[in-house]
Amino acid sequence: MTSLNFSQQSGVFDRAAARPVTVIGAGSVGSQVVVQLAKIGVTGITVYDGDYVESHNIPMSAYRVGDLGRLKVAALEAIVLEQSDLRIAAVPRMFQRERLAGSVVACVDSMEARRLIWDQVKMNPNVDILVDTRTAAELISVFAVNPCDPEDIAYYEHFLYPSSQASRLMCGLHGIIYASAVAASAVCANLTNKWSQGRMRRHFQMLVGELESVGQ
Amino acid sequence: MADKLKVKIMVVPTQGKSTTQTVELKKSGASLKEVLKAAGVSADNKDLLVNGQPATLDTHVGAKDKVEVKVQVSERPRGS
Fold this sequence. Notes:
The complex is a heterodimer.
Chain A: E1 21-24, H1 28-39, E2 45-48, H2 72-84, E3 89-91, E4 102-106, H3 111-121, E5 127-136, E6 139-145, H4 150-158, H5 177-197, E7 203-207, E8 212-214
Parallel strand pairs in A: 1-2, 1-4, 2-3, 4-5
Antiparallel strand pairs in A: 5-6, 6-7, 7-8
Helix pairs in contact in A: 1-2, 1-5
Chain B: E1 5-12, E2 19-25, E3 29-31, H1 32-39, E4 47-50, E5 53-54, E6 60-62, E7 69-74
Parallel strand pairs in B: 1-7
Antiparallel strand pairs in B: 1-2, 3-6, 4-5, 4-7
């Protein structure tokens, strides 16, 4: 439960429509997704991550200076409790092959991790939506698919190549918080649209620094 | 059938603005590999779309009357 007053957003999103969400990866995008979900009144949030907060994580994420050295999920649990009076389920390890249900958000940084998640959600009737976020510098790419829909499956699998075939992450060009914040917002918009209206945007791309939505 | 293929190519980087160029081939159809080669655009480790649909270098790009062919060549972000 949460004691937040949602009166200013109740006409935009009815939180009674929310489903449980599993967020896999609590880095730059994942930490902001969790904070946003809690603040819109989503109560069933589970987060997987086995990493600790390092100094380079802080400018890009929801973490605070005082979180340095803490487990990301423990820090995030404290942040969400403080900001939203909500307790999340923090799982202090990397996602392996646990069963998934509800809505799933992939905020991982390797294609192999995305493949592992996909193997658990593909044709899983208990998962209503998979949202996968990908970032590099100021480019964000957000996929939102129904894992039981043949067209969505074909589309998403086209973009499941090995990490060796993805853009190389150059030092200093990993990302920046305003880009990952847009990706996190795209995740939450897809989830609320799916829960409320049954719709989602299968692939959203944006060059955030130029405020340029790309795609055909 | 048209004997000229006109393709608009959008290249999406990881930062800055996307760029667009148009290439014309004197044939009614070609593989995406041929189109990108003619335009001097590298497809190494890039996401490819033709008219919004996922594509590969082997995808056939054909001119249809009064329909512009749009190709998107995008970097592949993988962080999060």
